Amino acid sequence: MSQDKSSAELTLPLLEKEVKASASQLANFSEQMQQLKKDNLKERQHLPEWFKVKLPIGQDLERYNKVKSLRHGLNLHTVCEEARCPNISECWGRGTGTFMIMGDTCTRACRYCDVKSGKPGSLDKEEPRHVAEAIKQLQLKYVVITSVTRDDLSDGGAAHFAETVEWCRKLTPETKIELLIPDFWAKEEDLLTVIESKPYVIGHNIEAVERIYPKIRPKPTYKIALDVIDKLKKLSVESGIPMLTKSALMVGHGEDANEVVQTMKHLRAIDCDIFSIGQYLRPSNWHVPVQKFYTPQEFISLRESGLKLGFKNCVAGPLVRSSYLAEQAVGLKIH
Question: Which residues lie closer than 8 Å to 51 by C-beta, 6 or more apart?
């Protein structure tokens, strides 16, 4: 590729609130993104010594293989694989996982995320039932369901989320469902659609502090992300369906501790209940570089700050992700 990285990035189409790019542009977008990542993937950063992940063995390995086999058999996606989560061995080994619905292609191109970007295909009408069947077969007691962002859909996929929850309730009513939703551009009617499906927890990740946000996440805005969480809480109460709200932040983008605490204050001001903080890990050289690796002690300090601000729970650590041990984050013990 003859052009340098900075000029190559400028050729990437940024999707507006309504997708305005031509069909050919969108069709080529995913291929272009993947090629850029391959061309730039030359060397990996050396991780600090505290980034060690145990591989599953024994019964944990059997459960890991069962989750993987079932996922492929039902044509499902997991954010564990698509976003290359460092905890995949532990979570799948425990027989848990986070299902990612509405395909594996996102209509946005955030500079920290490894999920494929481009023009998504049509929604799989059988997917809500397949997710529920997988949960039933795996006998899961607590499940997180998330998705790619689908700006190409009029409701952003809100109805698809709701149908998935309804199928889960029908096939495995004892399972508690946590939803990690895209922003839906903070549209109240779409937020209400998912609220009325009555998940146990509903979350939207803030992802970055206010100063860093536009550098790594061109769409939407920091304010809209806060509005989503604010409206989720208010609309659920007004609808008589009060539920826990949740958000998460990735550190290592160049923010400082004061900015992280300020973000926590913003979230507490809108009554966000649960907050997770994890270390950003660069998926490829196309993505923004890591500016800092936080130490375990720094994560402990940030967690203490969050608890002092009034979060019901604040989970922080180098390998923490928003769906990692999600049942424990809300105070449940699942065996």
Answer: 86, 318, 319
CB proximity list for 147: less than 8 A, separation 6 or greater:
100, 101, 102, 157, 160, 161, 181, 182
Find where tokens 């937020």 sit. 191
pLDDT in tens, 288-331: 999 999 999 999 999 999 999 999 999 999 988 877 777 778 87
Q: Cα(287)–Cα(216) distance, rounded to whole angstroms?
A: 9
Q: Which amino acid is at 203?
A: G
- Residue 188: closest CA among 227, 160, 147: 227
Can you tell me the distance from the alpha carbon of 38 to that of 55, in angstroms, rounded to the nearest whole number?
Answer: 27
> What would the mean pLDDT of 266-270 be, rounded to a whole number?
98
Determine the Cα–Cα distance for residues 176 and 135; give it in Å rounded to an integer. 11
Contact 216, 288 (CB under 8 A): yes
pTM of the model: 0.78
Distances (CA, A) of 63 to 57, 92, 94, 172, 325: 10, 7, 7, 19, 16
Backbone dihedral angles phi then psi of residue 248, each to the nearest 5 degrees: -150, 155
Long-range contacts of 43-51 (CB under 8 A, 24+ apart): 43/285, 45/282, 45/289, 45/290, 47/281, 47/293, 48/293, 48/295, 48/318, 50/295, 50/296, 50/318, 51/86, 51/318, 51/319
pLDDT score recorded for residue 325: 72
- Whether the predicted pLDDT of 107 surpasses 90: yes
How many other CB atoms are there within 10 angstroms of residue 293's CB atom?
Answer: 18
Q: Whole-angstrom Cα distance, residue 166 to residue 26?
A: 32
Does residue 220 have a cis peptide bond before it, meaning omega lies within 30 degrees of 0? Answer: yes
Task: Kindly provide the residue ranges of all beta strands, DSSP E only, lying in 127-235, ordered along the sequence.
Answer: 142-147, 176-180, 201-203
Tokens representing 5 are 């990285």
- pLDDT one-digit tens code per residue, 277-294: 999 989 888 899 999 999
